[in-house]
Predict the 3D structure of the following.
Amino acid sequence: MPRDFKAPVNVSPLIRFGRWSFLLLGVTYGATRHSYLQKKEDKTKEIRHKKIAEREAKIAAEKKKFVEDEIKSLDVIFNPPKTVT
């Protein structure tokens, strides 16, 4: 069963102008806000990458030290020092 709609209402030019104005203002605000946040993020991104690199280097050094200690302890377990009798 087809539905009958009312005829469209003519919208006032003032209302139409207001709608378009707010749409353009919103787009402009979004673009400027995005630009501001992008600049802020670019500054913090560099700092964050430096911290990540430092942390990874520290973890790698700790792993290397742990492996060396583990090898030493395994060497002592499997190859005990010879005692002189």
Summary: The helical segments are 13-78. DSSP finds one helix and no strands in the chain. The radius of gyration is 35 Å. The CA atoms of residues 16 and 25 lie 14 Å apart.
